[in-house]
Amino acid sequence: MALNKKPVTGMREILPAEMQIRDYVIGRIKETYKGFGFTPIETPCVESIANLCSKQGGENEKLIFKIMKRGEKLNWKEAENENDLADSGLRYDLTLPLSRFYSNHAANLPKPFKALQIGPVWRAERPQKGRYRQFYQCDIDILGDPTNMAEIELIQATTTLLGELGFSGFTVRINDRRILKAMAQYSQFPEARFEEVFVILDKLDKIGTSGVIRELKEAGFADLAIERCLQMFEEFNQSEDGIAYMGEKLSGFLEEGTTENLQQIAECVTQTAQTDFQLVFDPTLVRGMSYYTGTIFEIGMEGFGGSVAGGGRYDEMIGKFTGVQTCACGFSIGFERIVTILMDQQFRIPSQAAKKAYLIEKGMCSERLCEVMREAQNERSQGTQVLVTWMNKNKKFQKKQLEEEGYTEWKEFYINPLRQ
User: Sheet containing 295-301: which strands, arranged edge to edge?
Assistant: First the structure.
């Protein structure tokens, strides 16, 4: 029986044309973020199953690829459920591994620490365009800074990067988890079910007000609570200053300084922007991870469903490792989605070095072949990318393939130099 030549469902193989764009984007990410003082780090792709299932990752904890115990530790007979068979798993994001990393190395790291991490993550979800079971994430995080300087720099760096990649006119939405909790308290939803309320409210832009009302009622929430919540959103939409309105409306429920903090972030980001984008306050923005504790943000682009970047403040996660609360804030770019958009736009890498192909007739003698190879080396030393390959019988098709790979010049070498 022949082996299966197709990759496992949800995993993908990347052809050279896309790989060049991916390498270019990663290069721009590293260069731009380093300009903001972020330092590259690396963490293992495998984490302890206890850490992965610590109720920090929200719905993603249902999507973990678990790794079975090995050798004598794998005891089928005494296992009562799947958790008794697994002791580790593939990471579903880069934030939890970063928190463990920082907890382990904080004494040897600067404070605050600005981390840049790029690497693959795995989630056992339903694959679709721009969403795979294995995909890359690119995160920047600032650890140890309790002020909103962290949020401002994260948004500045990420929007600057998108501008470097040619994007403009996108929307940055911001909110604060403390505002969400105050809204839920004001509306008189039961505190034990706040997260359930947030998940439904997060669908407002997808299913509309009627859809949100239906789902809240189906979940068993009181009509009065639903009415108070949606009435607040209606008044918010009619207000001139949404942040100020929420501060006044939620007075007595909201932590002091929350709206002023958001206002300062919005003003600083807007006034220092180097890219064309819109920043808006959206009190229905939730973000799926349950580890967020304060400011949250998300970037969307017109014509592309879902966000292309998101993040927020998670001040309690590192403390779960160390017992000492450490402030933390991060922003993650949807690398695969960015690449998908660029591919759909038939993006061409700017200022790419000249690419030339040497086509050599088969059967050439060693002396002549060495001359050609020396010529290729000389051109490479001058900055030209040179591919040396044998000449196919169908040169027209061969050259077409080379053009698709970005080669703009070629030179033909024959056994008889007079034919050149």
Answer: 39-40, 113-122, 134-143, 328-333, 304-313, 295-301, 170-176, 277-281
Q: Are residues 335 and 376 in the same domain?
A: no
Could you give phi then psi for residue 290, rounded to 5 degrees?
A: -80, -5
Rg (Cα) of the chain, in Å, rounded?
27
Mean pLDDT by groups of 10 residues along the chain of 420 residues: 88 90 95 96 94 77 86 70 82 94 94 96 83 91 96 96 94 95 94 89 84 92 92 89 92 92 95 92 84 93 84 93 92 92 88 84 91 92 90 90 85 78
pLDDT the model gives residue 420: 61
Assess whether 47 and 136 both reside in one domain: yes
Residues 330 and 400 in one domain: no
Instruction: Determine, yes or no, domain membership for 225.
Output: no
The domain boundary residue, chosen from 295, 326, 352: 352
Same domain, 332 and 388: no
CATH number of the domain enclosing 330: 3.30.930.10
pLDDT at 306: 75
| Under 8 Å between Cβ of 329 and 313 | yes
Cα gap 156→136, rounded to integer Å: 22
Residue 144 backbone class (left: φ over 0; alpha: ψ -120 to 50; beta: rest): left
> How big is the chain, counted in residues?
420
pLDDT at residue 87 in the model: 87
According to DSSP, residue 83 is labeled G
> Three-state DSSP class for 309?
strand
Which tokens is 316 given? 């309690």
Count up the domains in the chain and report the number: 2
Domain with residue 406: its CATH number is 3.40.50
> Domain range holding 17?
10-146+315-352
Residue 113 domain flag: yes
DSSP label at residue 71: G
Contact between residue 13 and residue 7 where contact means Cβ atoms under 8 Å apart: yes
Cβ 87 vs Cβ 69: under 8 Å: yes
> What pLDDT is attached to residue 267?
95
Q: How many whole angstroms from its chain centre is CA 383?
A: 33
Q: In what order do the strands lie in the sheet with 385-390?
A: 385-390, 355-360, 409-413
| DSSP E strands, 156-301 | 170-176, 277-281, 295-301
